[in-house]
Specification:
Helix content is about 20%, strand content about 25%. By secondary structure, the chain is an alpha+beta fold. The chain has a domain of about 50 residues.
Length: about 80
Amino acid sequence: MIEFAIDNDIPLTVHGQARYPFRKLQVGQSFFVSDPKRFVGCRRAASMTGPRIGNGVKFVTRTVTENGVKGVRIWRVS
């Protein structure tokens, strides 16, 4: 049988950064995602992140074309 040592007071490490800046957005601010491979993922992340943050935070996504580039813009609306 393998035995494991149990440790106390070891801080949890954070791996990487958030892919999208949802937590940095203030109401009325937005960001643009131009990578077609991320369209579905960023929409899903926006719908899941609001409830995770809490306090009534909501995001809205729209497919847009900006400067000839098709992408998704995500706004914080509350």
